[in-house]
Amino acid sequence: MPSGTLRIGMLAGEISGDILGSHLLAALKNQFDDVIVEGIGGPLMAEQGLESLYPMDRLSVIGLVEPLKRLPELLRIRRGVYEHFLANPPDVFLGIDAPDFNLGLEIRLRAACITTAHLVSPSVWAWRSGRIHKIKRAVDLMLTLFPFETEIYKQHQVPVEFVGHPLADEIPLQVDGSAARATLDYFPVGKCLALMPGSRAGEVRMLGPLFLDVAGRLLKEIPNLSFILPAANDARHAELLSLLQAHPELPVTLIKGQSREAMAAADAVLLASGTATLEAMLLKRPMVVAYRMAALSWFIISRLATTKFVGLPNVLAGRELVPELLQSKARADLIADALLPLLLEGGERETTLGEFDEIHRQLRLGYGERAAAALASLVAGKSSEP
């Protein structure tokens, strides 16, 4: 086991990266006598000893226009981080996700003979596959959360290590739905469907009315069916409440946050694409993925994409394990038809849950300890080079 002091630079640009970084730092403390960490992160990384050079929220920008508005500030922060580590070289610098910010920084640091690694593979397997050449110049080691991501790096001779996913460690292999219902104080009489139209205003605008239309159709088929609808924040709660006023006949329980508990309390889930599909799979809840976006955005993205699937369970399985109804196929009748067998006991539901369990076990590797060991090995290997 490594010992002594590790000086590490780390940079996370958003809450998900802060979570990943905090688990990794906790594991590194078991590998080394002392861990000195500087960079950018959030409150969880700060609890593990991070000395932050800039507030993380200055990097947390999304969309196409907002980053352009903030470009001078973002470039100034990146230059400041680069100059800091150039003057105070760490044993290793780790960029966590945020590839548009981190990869350029990693290229410059690596050119200055600083060992670099990156955690969370950019989705080169899904679109913009040409980024692999930039990544090859940027990192001495790529740490991936999913096993299928390693192949493209091996093909391009980029050192890579699959470290598992922290959600797979965090969520037990068997989840107690009754306990989740008790936590929410939610006790439906019959079957329950979780409705999750997304966390962004545009998603709720596009998918909210559609999902409620689906609920109405299903209620005609299963009269004692009820619905639970978690709102990501106060703004989404207000928007969803307004939508529900037009559907007083629907037995929908609207809650704030607690999306994981809502999925665990349900018998099946209707959701937009994203990380929630992974979470639903790990919770062993059958699902249907449905998504719509503006026509121009769909035209562009559908032509850039190099993967057939958007839901992570399907990407991980390499086939359509869960139904995906996207854009023109995201119709209430088709979605309701796909959900109906998932709400009823039967062979199709049980087969799907069995495959969910198999994938869960593949991802459940002890993410923090595995990632820490990979970084320790990288540092040891570099220090022994002539």
Describe what this molecule looks like in 3D.
- The protein has 386 residues and is an alpha/beta fold.
- The protein is built from 18 helices and 13 strands.
- The longest helix has 21 residues, at 201-221.
- The mean pLDDT is 90.
Describe what is shown at a glance.
This protein has 18 helices and 13 strands.
Task: Please state how the strands of the largest beta sheet are arranged side by side.
Answer: 3-2-1-4-5-6-7
Taking all Cα atoms into account, the compactness measure Rg is 22 Å
Class by SSE composition: alpha/beta
What does the largest sheet look like?
A: 7 strands, parallel
According to DSSP, the number of beta strands is: 13
Residue windows where pLDDT falls under 50 for at least 5 positions? none
Please state the average pLDDT score.
90
Number of helices: 18
- Beta-strand residue fraction: 15-25%
Write the layout of secondary structure elements.
Blueprint (H helix, E strand, L loop, with lengths): L4 E8 L2 H17 L2 E7 L2 H5 L3 E2 L12 H5 L1 H17 L4 E5 L2 H13 L4 E4 L11 H8 L2 E4 L5 H6 L4 E3 L3 H5 L6 H8 L7 E5 L4 H21 L4 E6 L2 H11 L7 E5 L2 H7 L2 E4 L3 H8 L4 E5 L3 H10 L7 H6 L6 E3 L5 H8 L7 H17 L3 H17 L3
Parallel strand pairs: 1-2, 1-4, 2-3, 4-5, 5-6, 6-7, 8-9, 8-11, 9-10, 11-12, 12-13
Helix pairs in contact: 1-18, 4-5, 5-6, 9-12, 10-11, 10-16
Which labels suit this protein?
single chain; 386 residues; alpha/beta; seven-stranded parallel beta sheet; six-stranded parallel beta sheet; 18 helices; 13 strands
